[in-house]
Amino acid sequence: MAKLFLVRHGQSLWNLENRFTGWHDIDITETGIEEAKKAGLALKGEKIDMAFTSVLMRAEHTLNVILETMEKKDIPIIRDKALNERSYGTLEGLNKAETAKQYGDEQVLSWRRSYDIVPPGGESLKDTYNRVIPYFEKEIVPLLKEGKNILVVAHGNSLRSLVMHLEHLSPEEILQREIATGIPIVYLFDEQFHVHRQDH
């Protein structure tokens, strides 16, 4: 038996300001720190063998707060850009409402919520999936198969890619799935490596 814990980083400054963030390195807010503490409290009784995060500070900071709250600062941490948020290209830093005024609501909605439409200079969710899943299969699955419990702290779209893969969701189904900030999603892997979602 192994467990995989997925946590989306706490609220970032640009989440608060309703901006496209993507690969821009923006830290979490005080609210984000509180969300990370709540995630740490929710996971406090769990055994964690190793943690993975992106190279963006909002995910790293969230992970550090979680581990501090769990009193597990000595856990090995692997950082990799494969787990970074989806890139929004030239939209990064722009206010979402202002962008909708400029390009039209429908266009912005299709950039944000379609599976394979690419924002200017950025990545689609499909591109993000094709970056995250090979990394997951190569680096994280072998550890789960060894029975290790793994914590992944990342971003809305990199985690959405993992949820899509683990739950065998269609592109339409995953677009309806919101990943809340700071609330752990837990998957249990049995001896046959079948995956079961567990509410936390």
Automatic annotation (TrEMBL):
Q: What is this protein called?
A: 2,3-bisphosphoglycerate-dependent phosphoglycerate mutase
Extract one GO molecular function annotation from the record.
Answer: phosphoglycerate mutase activity
This entry's Enzyme Commission designation comes to 5.4.2.11
Active site per database record: 9 (tele-phosphohistidine intermediate), 85 (proton donor/acceptor)
Describe which pathway this protein belongs to, using the record's wording: Carbohydrate degradation; glycolysis; pyruvate from D-glyceraldehyde 3-phosphate: step 3/5
In this chain, substrate is annotated as bound at: 8-15, 21-22, 58, 85-88, 96, 112-113, 156-157
Catalytic function, reaction form = (2R)-2-phosphoglycerate = (2R)-3-phosphoglycerate
Q: By its UniProt entry, which NCBIfam families does this protein fall under?
A: pgm_1 (TIGR01258)
The record's Gene3D superfamilies line, in alphabetical order, gives: Phosphoglycerate mutase-like
The record's section on PANTHER family has: PHOSPHOGLYCERATE MUTASE
Show which residues form the site (Transition state stabilizer). 155
So what does this one do? Catalyzes the interconversion of 2-phosphoglycerate and 3-phosphoglycerate.
Coiled coil location? none
Keywords linked to the UniProt accession:
Gluconeogenesis, Glycolysis, Isomerase
Gene Ontology BP annotations:
gluconeogenesis; glycolytic process
What organism is the protein native to? Answer: Chryseobacterium pennipullorum
Q: Pfam families in the record, alphabetically?
A: His_Phos_1
Membership in a protein family = Belongs to the phosphoglycerate mutase family. BPG-dependent PGAM subfamily.
This protein's superkingdom? Bacteria
Tell me the SMART domains matching this sequence. PGAM
